[in-house]
Request: fold
Amino acid sequence: MPAKLSVNLNAIAMLRNRRDLPWPSVAGLGRIALSSGASGLTVHPRPDQRHIRFSDLPVIRALIDDEFPQAEFNIEGYPTDEFFDLCAAAEPEQVTLVPDDPAQATSDHGWDFRRHGDLLGEVIAKYKKIGCRVSLFADGDGDVEAVAIAKATGADRIELYTGPYGGFYDQPERAAPILEALGKTADAALAAGLAINAGHDLTVANLPPLMKRIPKLAEVSIGHGLTADALEYGMAETVRRFRRACGQTV
Reply:
């Protein structure tokens, strides 16, 4: 089964926020992505609203509900009370919990499940009560014991942090062992009953090897590389290119 593609809109929002103008349109480009076969839209509303604004959430929710009811809304964030309130109002199909400091430029590591397992268990129960599937950002370092703890929190999925893999885009010999560690983590998660998502610095070039090593990958969330390609190919064609890289028939 090919992986589903969720288009992360953060980079588009960051470009919009350079001016006090409504373009590029976050919802408009989300519409093009979904019309071109993307399975969902992802956002990460940070407390300083430096890219996705809180006011974007109801607009994206309405876009999906009114025009693409088969699509999913995935909201990423650190589980503060404010973030929970945003999710309760936006009713995303999936919440991806990340261990980010609010000042971080971008997500760059997974949860320390040994340290935060109890906290995550309490938090996840809250999100389950409002009907969200919960995914936990995880380091794909092959730590099988950590995966077991992640499962014990009540999470439905883990999202493999693929930044180190994507960082060696021009050094395949260095990317290979990282890919194998991601695969080992995925194997353990699948054996434990967790579904697998992946995200960060994924591209048309490095997705097929990832899919080959993790053929049961459920979903990839892609923003930066996809947005960069969209500047060259347009959003519609870029989504089709990434869908093909995920193994989908387009």
Q: What stands out?
A: The mean pLDDT is 96. The domain at 4-245 is CATH 3.20.20.70 (TIM Barrel). The radius of gyration is 17 Å. The chain has one domain: 4-245.
